[in-house]
Write a structure and sequence with these properties.
By secondary structure, the chain is α/β, with parallel strands linked by helices. The protein is built from 13 helices and eleven strands. InterPro entries: 6-PGluconate_DH-like_C_sf, ACT-like_dom_sf, ACT_dom, NAD(P)-bd_dom_sf, PDH_C, PDH_N, Preph/Arog_dehydrog, Prephen_DH.
Length: 361
């Protein structure tokens, strides 16, 4: 791949353009909002000028509702030898293109499983896709050259290719991406009218659950409108579990010992099923999730503190597997939770204490 045209310079399009441009591909940028394309160009994603002729690959990075129209327009103009899209829904756009009578031998639907709560070119980074799955949905009538170019794109973005059927992909993302967004928003919505005293008690748990609730509603309306059926199916199953959980909790209020026992059993069932499901979520490098120990360290809110604690952990020869920061309410300080292998805990704790860090037991 020597040349590429990115149509749509939001978070995903600009991030792909940054990655390609950094690896020697000449990238052209196109957006219905010329100011956004110019912003992406200023960030080093490519040029906002029109390509002089057909490029090797056109990457359509627009909302799902506009994918088919944008692809059909690009194909009509003959802007590339091959076409892909990176929308989060795959079945619908292909069916729309088929209904338009477009020749789809030069098209392949794809979806990089990466994103942020923020959107737009200013949120883009060249490393957004590194180590992340990038779904490809080839069909029997697709051109092999298109698949090869898509695989090259995935490699240049340092992502991990995953081949799936388009409709199977849509059912999968309904479960692992679209439904979590709605559930996060539903929980966060409870905070809108909550008493200020309750909100001040927010800890890491509520922050974890509501993190993605900060996402752009307009973007998610586009996504959910393109995949409503599979998402509704998952939510229906969750609604049934919620109904049963409510009944179990009400039973725990009963004076009847048998009802309380039944209620406790219902709650235990959903918690244990949650344990089993969580264990299936891939951990580091896509392997089964490992069990790490937490070393919690008091840390001040000042420049250089994070770098200093990571450097001290490195001197101890300890690899930090994951990290979280728990902010202290109303204070310019908090705790950093360092997740490490169990056998590394004594070594890391001793090293950090020796260097003056305060460890929370």
């Amino acid at each position: 791949m020597r040349t590429a045209l990115v149509i749509g310079t939001g978070l995903i399009g600009t991030s792909a353009a940054l990655a390609l441009n950094a690896r020697g591909v000449q990238v052209f940028l196109e957006d219905h909002d010329q100011a956004q394309a110019l912003t992406a160009a200023a960030l080093g994603a490519g040029t906002a000028e029109a390509p002089p002729g057909p490029v090797d690959l056109a990457i359509v990075a627009v909302p799902p509702a506009h994918v088919a129209t944008a692809l059909a327009d690009a194909m009509r103009r003959g802007v590339a030898r091959a076409y892909i899209d990176v929308a989060s829904v795959k079945g619908g756009p292909r069916r729309e293109l088929e209904a338009m009578g477009r020749d789809l031998t030069g098209y392949l639907g794809t979806h990089p499983m990466a994103g942020k709560e923020r959107s737009g070119p200013l949120a883009a980074t060249a490393d957004l896709f590194e180590g992340r799955p990038w779904v490809l949905t080839p069909t029997r009538d697709g051109d092999t050259e298109v698949l090869n170019l898509a695989l090259e794109l995935v490699a240049l973005c340092r992502a991990v290719p995953v081949v799936m059927d388009a409709d199977a992909h849509d059912r999968a993302v309904a479960l692992v991406s679209h439904t979590p967004q709605l559930l996060s928003s539903l929980v966060a919505a409870r905070l809108k009218g909550a008493d200020e005293t309750a909100v001040r008690l927010c800890g890491q748990g509520i922050r974890d659950v509501t993190r993605i609730a900060a996402s752009d509603p307009a973007m998610w309306i586009d996504i959910l409108s393109a995949n409503p059926g599979p998402v509704a199916d998952v939510l229906s199953e969750i609604a049934a579990d919620l109904d049963e959980t409510v009944r179990s909790l009400r039973a725990l209020e009963s004076a009847d010992e048998d009802k309380r026992g039944s209620g406790a059993g219902g709650i235990e069932d959903v918690l244990r099923r949650g344990n089993a499901g969580r264990e299936r979520v891939p951990g580091k490098h896509g392997a089964a999730p490992a069990t790490y120990e937490i070393v919690a360290v008091y840390i001040g809110d000042q420049p250089g503190e994070l770098a200093r604690i990571f450097a001290d952990a490195g001197r101890a020869g300890v690899n930090i597997e994951d990290v979280r920061i728990e902010h202290a309410t109303g204070q310019q300080a908090g705790f950093i939770q360092l997740m490490v292998e169990p056998q590394a805990v004594p070594v890391l704790t001793a090293e950090l204490r020796e260097r003056g860090w305060s460890i929370r037991q």
